[in-house]
Amino acid sequence: MKKTRNTRQRGVILGILQETREHPTAEKIYQNARQIIPNISLGTVYRNLNFLQNQGLVREIHSCYGSSTRFDGILAPHAHFHCVRCGILFDIALPQGFEQFQLNQMDMASTITSIDLNIMGECAKCAPCSSFTTEDQGSTH
Amino acid sequence: MKKTRNTRQRGVILGILQETREHPTAEKIYQNARQIIPNISLGTVYRNLNFLQNQGLVREIHSCYGSSTRFDGILAPHAHFHCVRCGILFDIALPQGFEQFQLNQMDMASTITSIDLNIMGECAKCAPCSSFTTEDQGSTH
DNA sequence: GTAATTGCAAAAGATTTGCCCCATT
DNA sequence: AATGGGGCAAATCTTTTGCAATTAC
């Protein structure tokens, strides 16, 4: 196997993901990284996100809300809540007895790489005003 | 609100999704639909998938494997297993006590629209040969 | 010095949209 | 007849990739 190098770009990208709980998109990570390495390129961000994912240091979060993949650098197991109105995405605890569930799936799979649990709904902030904005999810906060 | 029409295209697309458990992509649905309506367009498929999703008749499934969204026309609650090698995607039962978990989340959200539980791993077919294909997920079956 | 990694720009996919015509109601 | 929806093609958006230059080891 080929050896990897510790580039500044890679370190900065991983750092950004480990220090936030905002689950940024590649574009957002790029914007943050540019404040530290002004001429970093978006391609480098994507390449490193894929690399870090293969190393198991980072994981992808997919959602019906928004068309970009979001990333998570917090490795402790947890689930995600997605607000279908404002798009906010935050961490929630896994349900109790989840390890048991994982065990039960072992007859269908020999290896479980990861478990993604995503709850979609309206967050506490968006719920009260939801009856007024029927057409578009045009809420901002 | 504006009234909707029952077009042949819409019916065929919904029918395809309700009769399969293969969770096809938009492209795949398009191919299937063309066997019934030869000149249906891909744009129409996408437009109707969005429409049917808004109606709650269909839902999206996202995965780290593959770059296209896949769709599910089976409304009964269930989870999904994704094979990280061959990309196969199949239904699995939700863990016991999941309703309880849902209730526990109600303080973070006033409404839960949907729950997506995705298990990633190697399926029974792919597991034995996994040690031979290390670089690329080039398995087919 | 060597090869992994970067920046840049072009390419590749996936999905959406504008426009005009057709078909459902 | 009115207008929602379809077909087609162009546009948009996200992500990947080729290549020459750079940099970590």
Order of helices and strands of chain A: HHHEEEEHE
Helix content of chain A: 25-40%
Radius of gyration of chain A: 18 Å
Strand sequence of the main sheet of chain A, in spatial order? 4-3-5
Low-confidence stretches of chain A: 130-141
Question: Tell me about the biggest sheet of chain A?
Answer: 3 strands, mixed
Feature tags:
5 strands, 4 helices, homodimer, two-stranded antiparallel sheet, 141 residues, DNA-binding, disordered C terminus, alpha+beta, 3-stranded mixed β-sheet
Q: How does this structure look, described?
A:
Two copies of one chain form a homodimer. Chain A is of the alpha+beta class and 141 residues long. Chain A has four helices and five strands, in the order αααββββαβ. In chain A, strands 4-3-5 form a three-stranded mixed sheet, with no helix packed on it. In chain A, strands 1-2 form a two-stranded antiparallel sheet. In chain A, helix 1 (8-19) packs across helix 2, helix 1 crosses helix 3 (42-54) and helix 2 packs across helix 3. The termini of chain A are far apart. At the A-B interface, helix 4 and strand 5 of A face helix 4 and strand 5 of B.
In short, what is this structure?
The structure is a homodimer. With about 140 residues, chain A is an alpha+beta fold. Chain A contains 4 helices and 5 strands.
Write the layout of secondary structure elements.
Two copies of one chain form a homodimer.
Chain A: H1 8-19, H2 26-34, H3 42-54, E1 59-61, E2 70-72, E3 79-83, E4 89-92, H4 98-104, E5 109-123
Chain B binds a DNA duplex (25 and 25 nucleotides) through helix 1 and helix 3.
